[in-house]
Amino acid sequence: MGFPDPLVREAYLMAFDYINYVMAKPGIPVNPAPSRATASLRHAGDELLIRFPIFFRRWPHVFQDHFAPTRHRELAWSAVLSVFVLSGQLVLHCQESGMSDIPPRIQECVGSYVERVICPEIRDRGGWVSVKVLKLWTLIVMSLLRINPPC
Questions:
Q1: Which domain holds residue 124?
Q2: CATH classification at residue 126
Q3: How many domains does the chain fold into?
Q4: What is the dihedral of CA 111, 104, 92, 26, to 10 degrees?
Q5: What pTM value is reported for the model?
Q6: Quick check: 5 and 103 in contact, CB under 8 A?
Q7: What is the pLDDT of residues 35-85, one digit of tens each?
Q8: Is residue 151 part of a domain?
Q9: Is residue 55 part of a domain?
Q10: How would you label 60-99 residue by residue, b for 16+ Cβ within 10 Å and e otherwise?
């Protein structure tokens, strides 16, 4: 991934890594996450799917509500996480339905979408691996699991 902008490069890395992670066959070891952001995404995605599986059956509403072109509010971190997790679920559906040519296109589309829509706000918050962003990812997962964050 030869993107000159490190933020965009990380966005594509996250899209490709998360989808490859989700598509891994049970019982076959998965490669380690290639970055702190991808490791955080894997963990947050797993926790979200365990806690709220029904939420991801309603994925069209998530995109409608959070990513409408006329959106004028601050981007919610749960919505950022949802883009990746929902793409993973879509890829699993394609894989189960014998559409093996679709996942690479989804990876590209998710990377492109994140680059256009999400990266500008991530940049304003200090990047994917800033302390602020990693803390927010942790707080999202903890709130979903109803765990009190450390003081």
A1: 6-24+34-145
A2: 1.10.437.10
A3: 1
A4: -110
A5: 0.70
A6: no
A7: 988 998 898 888 888 877 766 655 555 555 545 554 445 666 677 777 888
A8: no
A9: yes
A10: eebeeebbeeeeeeebebbbbbbbbbbbbbbbeebeeeee
